[in-house]
Automatic annotation (TrEMBL):
The keyword Nucleotidyltransferase does not apply. Residues 481-606 form the CRC domain. One of its GO terms (molecular function) is DNA-binding transcription factor activity. It is found in: Nucleus. This is Protein tesmin/TSO1-like CXC 2. It comes from the Eukaryota. The keyword Nucleus applies.
Amino acid sequence: MDTPERSKVGGTPISKFEDSPVFNFINSLSPIQPVKSVHSIHTFHSPGSAAISSVFSSPHVSFHKESRFFIRHPFPDSVKQDASSDGLDESNVHSGVSNGAVLSASIVLSQENCNITCSLNEASVDLADDSSTQPDFSQSVQVDNGSPNHNTSPFYGVKLDFKLDISCTPSERVKLVQNMSENTKNPHTTKIGLEVQFPADQMKEDASESDWDNLISDNTDDLLIFETATGSETSKSEEKDYGISLNSHPNASGLHNVSQDSFMDDDGETGEHDGMSPTRSSACQEHENFVDLNLKTEAELNNGVPLGCKVDSQQHRGVRRRCLVFEAAGVSKKNIHNNSNAPPSISLPINAKPNSENRQLVSSKTSKTPVPYVLPGIGLHLNALARTSKDRPISQKTKTPGREFISRPCSMRPFSPAIAGENQSFKLSDPHQSPDPNGSELHDSQAVHSDVSLIPALGIEESTSPKKKRRKTENSGENEGCRRCNCKKSKCLKLYCECFAAGVYCVEPCSCQGCLNKPVHEETVLTTRKQIESRNPLAFAPKVIRTSEHDQEMGEESNKTPASARHKRGCNCKKSNCLKKYCECYQGGVGCSFSCRCEGCKNAFGRKDGFEEIEFEEDLDACEKEGVKSDDGKANANVPKLEHNHLSESILPVTPFPSCRSSVKLPFLSSGKPPRSSTLSLMNRSENQQAECKSDQIFHDDDTSEDLRVNSSPCTAVKTASPNGKRVSLPLNGFGLSPNLKGGRKLILKSIPSFPSLTTDAPSSTQINSSVFS
DNA sequence: GAGTTTGAAACT
DNA sequence: CAGTTTCAAACTC
């Protein structure tokens, strides 16, 4: 073995390492000789003796500062001291405290069976404290592993353990890379790379046998302490939460990727790994020491490394190539890299093109980046939310001077029910905030900001003519929502203007002419708005109200079943039969209700007639089977089917301020079945007012549909007409009842937008209704 | 892309 | 409050 010279860690002669069990192990690889422990893990790359040489030949790479594999764990100085006191070369042992989290990684190569045990322990913050006092702590090793199985997300008290029993064969390769001293100073940057490669089959079998506890207990001496690398503030923040630094962090992942590449991708598979760490800082690239345990085979990763930690899917994707990779021996492609080779992969330019996985990471990361532009003094207008099918990009003002940049997510499902909820107290703002496609409600402050996270960067992409784009997006179905106004005469100061109606400023994509609905004209906008509100307090109220609950429950199907939501005022369609977007109900993805004055309603989401006709039917089931027939006697095949769904929905106006919202549960909507005749009977129009009264009484904040109870308390009559004389009523108001009814449905008005102008305080359900219907 | 249709909004 | 006009989106060609 000529290793010593070539094997340097961070320029540190490997002589010390030779004393280490690892070294012995390596030496003994062929024939397999036991290695009791590894104080410091270095790269083993060795099939047989030759392998050993190779191990140390490549170790440079792995040892090299630039090695990308790393196990990060912060730990207390005390620990560090202990480690050093143990005679461990600092280069081999890095300790640090990061965020109070203590991570220790121990890798043990057992003498027998050439077991290689890698215990990765993530010590909680508490542990970190303990670690100082507990010698054994050193054994616990925190490995930042990006293995899919590895839980990328930090967790307390979770040990990430994997034990690998492999027969030592020439094919086996274990790389342990430590990176050195320079970085020790900087706990955040110190990384140690460890790569262990095993035959795939062995890995599967053995990897599954993870026994960290044993490792810890047995190999106290053999500890590798790694400092957690904290690439960025973000990672730190994450780590703080858990007291553990994880590779889940983009930076970390990037590091892993890099490291992995450095070790594994001689054969050109690096392509897989390239592009890794866009987020990775150059500094990290050069100076971080990593310990990487790479499990190359995914099966291995999944099966062979029972970490007891599960990584969420997203994390998986991001993490997949990271750390622990046990490469099947057969996979010779993973050659230990020479340092010369390593650098390229290692020091991948930040702006390097990420691979698909990396991209995901990046994208996910970036997705959050957009920051909504909130016009000064202008608050979120939830009306935008109300326009369900009309997603508006979240307003975002580009930094470009004089240019408004408003974007809103186009995530809306084609028929997703409009979310209602508008708090007029908000100033016009954030134009195009859209309801969460998922139906999630915007809550208070969250609404304003969280939505932003949803921003698909719409605004950025809009360069083509707004109109075309709009159509394009609309046609596309899901992205239907991205709209812009095209006003020519209204100056975007009337409700004709969708933007204005939504309470958002017009943005660049808009092709409006003479637009005054811009931040520049804020006063004008507000004034006009007030005027309109004075005329009709509900003018900016969400047109469609629905419950978020529904979305949550229904998930993807929610778009199919918006029925629980209803247009607050109802449509007045004459010719479109409520089958086109001319119909606001249809457009909002909700069924028509009693409030509608439409003629020949065939609303696929729920016909007004359907309700009425069904109302008195004794056997709803029959109805469902037959389908609901409209007044004109035309059967609407869609209706029954849809009815199930949308009836199950609850009305949920989404307002940013939950406190201001009250929810109404309409009794039978959650059943998911069409209204039962008995139930519907209550909805008889003659009884509308009564029903509405009931509905008023059943406002609830929570969604317990079962809670739907008819409140017998006296109710004041509620006007169904809007201030303007137009009927405004909550659809399904009359549904409050009948649990006894089979298939009772619930409409839940989870939140009704409070209109500050009307009621300063969070309106009670009654208040809401009164305000709505008065 | 222009023209038509449609229904809400605005107006009288 | 009803009728009419205006408006812009939706739709059609």
